[in-house]
Amino acid sequence: MRSQSGRIVTGLDIGTTKVCAIIGEYGVDGRVDIIGVGTEVCTGLRRGVVMNIQKTIESVRKAVEEAELMSGVDVQDVYVGIAGAHIQAKNSRGVIAVSRKGGIIAQDDVDRVIEAAQAVPLPPGRRMLHVVPQTFVVDEQPGILDPVGMNGVRLEGEVHIVTGDVAKVQSLLQAVEGAGLHVADIVLEPLASSMAVLDEDEKEMGVAMVDIGGGTTDLAIFLGSCIRHTSSIPIGGDLVTTDVAYGLKVPKGRAEEIKKKHGCAMQALVPSDECFVVPGVGANDQRELTRLELAAIIEPRMVEIYRGVAAELRQLGLHAHLGAGLVLTGGGSLLPGAAELASHVIGLPVRLGAPRGFGGLVDSASTPKHATGVGLVFYGQADGGAGSSSSPVSAGSDHLKDIFQRMTRWVSRYF
Questions:
Q1: Residue 267 has pLDDT above 60, yes or no
Q2: Domains in the chain, ordered, with CATH?
Q3: ∠ at Cα 89 (172, 238), nearest 5°?
């Protein structure tokens, strides 16, 4: 095994179509090198939810083994991404009176107002995953990011609360631990991806990060340097593949290959005379098809995804406030024309977001499909090892409670 000169952090992105393991090594100067990347096809999830635990365990094991072989590191602890339709989020506000004589706001006042803001009732079977402080109001002065040291008698705090279904979180834990790994922490995937692909200037100006995965499209909106909204749209790149398989009458695996090799998200960008050969299936002969015909299958589903994003922006009233526009990431954004079509449908500037800010295996990891995995590595370093443990664990109620307690600590230093 490799001689470790720095702290090792592993991110594990378990998606509907693939599992990706990213191993990062942090030096004493804080710089991270990606030293291992492992990817394995996954068929055990549907829209971010574990449906077949054994298939998921096997995919996790193979992805981690590939990353271990590349890096020479033996992985034990992992930071796991979570997404899916069961994830819900809301903004909440709390108010307190400043307790100190002279009205100087201290950290314990901030802690108290955040506690007040997160005191919201939850339905049975749901637990808080993240509580992210947004901004504070001191004596009716809004938009304050850090009120410590200011003078006032009344302190208000706004937070973004993310919740998940306990049973579905537990299934994810069981799959990871079934592969012989310890879950250091579970992190909402769009928050992790945003750490890898967004600039601070974009967050300040207002930006929507759209992460197109296999089963879902995850959305994270930042404004004034704060997270304002997260959500999940239950459509992703896997449905595009399904449409191609149905339209071309080929197996889904072959449809995925055709989509990646010849597909385009926008018909207007494809020359009408470009052709490719569709291999025969069974007794059927191979046939020739134009890329324009393939794009005609792909584009409507991509438009549906983007219209879902646009509808959410309109409902939130944030469309006009996104000065930095949209940042597309995730494997579904790799289709040629994906950014151009998004800009056409949503009416905002769009760029493709690849993870950055690291060394090592740059060529292997600097792709939008690895945004969540790299973001989880960044999160793990910022976490400072708070979730790490070498003791045996299980996905039972005690360990699940421990995970939730760790996750609900305030994460303002990350987002």
A1: yes
A2: 88-165 (3.30.1490.110)
A3: 55
